[in-house]
Design goal:
HD_domain; single chain; alpha+beta; nucleotide-binding; 24 helices; Beta Polymerase, domain 2
């Protein structure tokens, strides 16, 4: 076993060096000046996991014994441009052609445990630098240029066992930097690592300290978690340790107590299943055909995760033992927007996810296939560019174990998509507009630009959605009939 692991390690290191010739060259330059240089952390871990397929996969994260001034001089001689990534933290960046590197002086930081900010102290030992890192699987290095493997915390052993441990006690590690607890959940999702019981215990005990981490940094970790191969693993860890109560409280709130007759679903479990099903409906990465949703898609995954967050606030127990969640999609859309804004998501993502949450129940009015063409047009128009995601979200929202019911819902949505395609081909639904534009409206009514034109435009759009294409002449007649009933026309 040990020989096999060593052989795999050597092959991984050889592949990493082959994919990182610039790093090897820099290793020679630093060594010539009497300094150490090593590839550290993520690229070493990913090489050992077999996740590297070429130079583009290698994040050139380097550590050195050189002080920042000496590092900057060496990088200036090597590259086209250099910059301070964080001069106070000993990190210098450089670029040569398309290759970007970041080199950080060895550190032996002490943390202010009230603010989470390190009091930076530079070190002289690669091993000491690695021991201060977040997890043992990230505390491995490859010295340059000779390729010697350095693993003071047995990260290779933990990686072989798919286990996530901290180099020091998890209590001390998380006290130094509470964001590491979020990273643990992220690595459960992205790398499929099992978080060690002692790490889980420390996360549970210190969950509240994540509040001192900025919303922006929490958001970054949450995004990476959701874009991983198994988001459920990370989300369950966040909920189980209590971290979610502080970063995404709407998720544990879905753990509604099931009534004694089990007449409604566990909304939390339903949500995680919907997320998994939505991921399964994503297209392969890079897909670019019409209507494609290439994975991993953050907007779709966030919408699946948050689509039912309005249920706790709208739950009502009905006479006879039933349970209702009337208008939970509307309430949920508002809650979604508030949470994503609090986490500092960009406005476009926030609006798109909230809109999908608002629309996710719209299909259920079609379940019997009785929608008019007008209703189908409105469905497409309201979804706009989110239609392909809405298709996937709606299909994934069916988690019933009743096969007959599931088949009936799938057939109904097949029918709706077929009708959408037919109307799109006949009417170009993707760009539904009135039959007259603003200039034509002003000419027909003899009015200047202003609010009247906007009202007239919206009226014609409603007609277009109700009746389909009218043609310019019929649209003009309808416009004039509408105008005759407006107070402005009577005043004129």
């Amino acid at each position: 076993m040990a020989a096999a692991v060593a052989g795999a390690r050597d092959q991984a290191v050889a592949a990493l060096l082959a994919f990182a010739p610039d790093a090897v060259e820099l290793g020679r330059r630093f060594a010539a000046e009497g300094h150490e240089l090593a590839l550290v952390g993520g690229p070493v871990r990913d090489a050992l996991l077999g996740r590297l397929t070429g130079p583009a996969d290698v994040d050139l994260d380097l550590a050195t014994s050189a002080r920042p001034g000496a590092t900057a001089q060496l990088l200036t001689a090597w590259g086209d441009a250099t910059w301070d990534v964080g001069a106070a933290f000993g990190t210098v960046g450089a670029r040569r052609g398309d290759v970007v590197v970041e080199v950080t002086t060895y550190r032996s930081d002490l943390y202010d445990r009230q603010s989470r900010k390190p009091v930076v102290e530079f070190g002289d030992s690669l091993e000491d630098d690695l021991v201060r890192r977040d997890f043992t699987v990230n505390a491995m290095a490859v010295r340059l240029p000779d390729g010697a493997f350095v693993d003071p915390c047995d990260g290779l052993r933990d990686l072989a066992h798919r286990a996530l441990h901290t180099p020091r006690s998890p209590e001390d590690s998380f006290a130094d930097d509470p964001l590491r607890m979020m990273r643990a959940a992220r690595f459960a999702s992205t790398l499929g690592l099992r978080v060690a019981p002692a790490v889980v215990e420390a996360m549970t005990e210190r969950a509240g300290t994540v509040a001192m981490v900025s919303a922006e940094r929490v958001r970054v970790e949450l995004e990476k978690l959701l874009l991983g191969a198994s988001p459920r693993e990370g989300l369950e860890l966040l909920v189980g340790t209590g971290l979610a109560e502080h970063v995404l409280p709407e998720l544990p709130a879905l753990q509604l107590e099931i009534d004694e007759h089990h007449r409604h679903k566990d909304v939390y479990e339903h949500t995680l299943t919907v997320l998994e099903q939505a991921i399964a409906l994503e297209d392969p990465p890079g897909a670019d055909g019409e209507g494609a949703v290439p994975g991993p898609d953050l907007v779709l995954r966030l919408a699946a995760l948050l689509h039912d967050v309005g249920k706790p606030a709208t739950r009502r127990f009905e006479p006879g033992g039933g349970v209702s969640f009337h208008h939970h999609e509307v309430v949920g859309a508002k809650m979604t927007a508030r949470r994503l804004k609090a986490l500092r998501f960009d406005s476009a993502t926030t609006k798109q996810v909230a809109r999908l949450v608002e629309l996710h129940l719209r299909f259920h009015g079609y379940a019997g296939g009785e929608w008019t063409d007008s209703a189908v047009r409105r469905y497409v128009t309201d979804a706009g560019p989110l239609l392909s995601r809405l298709h996937r979200l709606t299909r994934s929202d069916s988690t019933t174990r009743n096969r007959r019911k599931a088949a009936r819902l799938a057939a109904a949505y097949d029918s709706l998509e077929h009708r959408i395609v037919e109307l799109q081909e006949a009417e170009e639904l993707a760009a539904v507009r009135p039959d007259l534009d603003g200039g034509q409206i002003m000419a027909a009514l003899g009015v200047p630009p202003g609010p009247v034109v906007g009202r007239a435009y919206r009226h014609l759009l409603e007609l277009r959605l109700d009746r389909g294409p009218l043609g310019e002449e019929a649209a003009r007649e309808a416009l004039l009939a509408w105008w005759a009933e407006q107070p402005e026309a009577a005043a004129g």
